[in-house]
Design brief:
Strand 2, helix 2 and strand 3 form a beta-alpha-beta unit. Helices cover 41% and strands 15% of the residues. By secondary structure, it is of the alpha/beta class. It has 11 helices and 7 strands. It has one domain: Spore Coat Polysaccharide Biosynthesis Protein SpsA, Chain A (Alpha-Beta Complex), CATH 3.90.550.10. Helix 3 packs antiparallel against helix 5. Strands 3-2-1-4-6-5-7 form a 7-stranded mixed beta sheet, with helices on both faces.
Length: 252
């Protein structure tokens, strides 16, 4: 499993919520710091890479990564696909788990599941799927990472110059399933039945509501998983209404 690296996609620039990675989210820690704290609790720090851009505004993210003993790669601001390819190449990663840093409720059990199954499988891409066939990376849940090979990313690079596919690293792969060996796992029905969950941070409203939820859940159990979050949300329906409104306003 040594050649599988966790690559975290993060930057401070955000049109809708600038500095969302470093704004105080839990006590005095920002979302990015908390993601690293959770990841390094289960994964060797040398197997984790921050992939951010060369923009000087991201120096703060590199500093945070270094404070956790995590490697950092600085690459293209807009061509995220190129950034991932270069990061993987520099750190000799033939298989990658892509983590988006704006998902503070990332489920580490599912991450471990991906690590184990991707290591034992020769597919190009592996992730999770809703019952209507939507890859979870395109949903608002925020619980799941995705796994991809360096070879598959390099193949995407040779097959398309469209900016959409260079900004959204894996989109071309699951949009062209006949060209890649793809493995999906269905998400649990207890989550699938909720299309009103939004736990990825894009807006100030996302940030504020998720900060409130995270502070309650994390304080109670730092090792929480998606099921714990679902139980909490079922018991606190007021959050669902706000999330649903944000989903409608921010359709992908």
């Amino acid at each position: 499993m040594n050649d599988i690296k966790i690559i975290i996609q993060a930057r401070t620039g955000s049109t809708r919520l600038p500095q969302k990675m470093i704004l105080p989210f839990y006590e005095n820690e920002g979302v990015f710091s908390l993601i690293l704290k959770r990841l390094t609790s289960i994964i060797k720090k040398e197997n984790i890479i921050l992939a951010t851009s060369t923009n000087v505004n991201n120096d703060v993210l590199e500093d945070i990564a270094k404070s956790y003993g995590v490697n950092c790669f600085r690459g293209s601001e807009d061509d995220v696909l190129q950034r991932f390819i270069d990061a993987a190449t520099q750190f000799n990663a033939t298989k990658l788990i892509r983590v988006c840093a704006d998902n503070p409720f990332l489920d580490l059990d599912y991450l471990n599941f991906l690590l184990q199954n991707f290591n034992e499988n020769d597919c190009d891409y592996m992730s999770f799927l809703t019952s209507n066939g939507t890859p979870t990376i395109k949903t608002h849940y925020g619980f799941w990472a995705e796994a991809v090979t360096l070879n598959a990313l390099e193949k995407v690079q040779t097959m398309t110059n469209e900016s959409l596919y260079h900004e959204h690293v894996t989109n071309f792969i699951y949009s062209n399933p006949n060209d890649f060996n793809i493995k999906f796992f269905n998400i649990p029905e207890e989550i699938n039945r909720h299309d009103d969950i939004r736990l990825t941070i894009d807006t100030k409203i996302d940030f504020d509501i998720q900060k409130e939820i995270f502070n309650i859940i994390y304080k109670k159990n730092p090792n929480f998983n998606a099921s714990d979050v679902i139980v909490f949300l079922n018991e606190n329906q007021q959050y669902m209404k706000i999330m649903k409104d944000e989903i409608l306003k921010n359709q992908k």
